[in-house]
Amino acid sequence: MARIxxxxxxxxxxxxxxxxxxxxxxxxxxxxDGLEAVEAAKRERPHLILxxxxxxxxxxxxxxxxxxxFDESIGVIMITAFREEDVARHALELGAFDYINxxxxxxxxxxxxxxxxxLMLM
Length: 122
Known about the structure:
Blueprint: E1 3-7, H1 11-23, E2 27-31, H2 34-44, E3 48-52, H3 60-70, E4 75-80, H4 85-93, E5 98-101, H5 106-121
Parallel strand pairs: 1-2, 1-3, 3-4, 4-5
């Protein structure tokens, strides 16, 4: 069972992802803005963060940078509603493992999660 932090300012998105992940027997935490995400990451030390790019108080790119500064081992998968290749590429350069677009392809999300979690256990 992995600890996963879901970060999105849309409550419905957090609810859908939480239900999906809990159904896969993961322990899920939620945050709804960037500052709350950093605090939750420090407190809960998740294995993985599903992180929206556009957040209030601190955007996802800044959250990614901050998280990687205090714990490089936390895996991050960026979430975006927009197909912005430059932003996604920048996130990958900063240490994100992957990025997914809304609406979600849950099969792809599951494969990405499984891949990252397996790499972490090696």
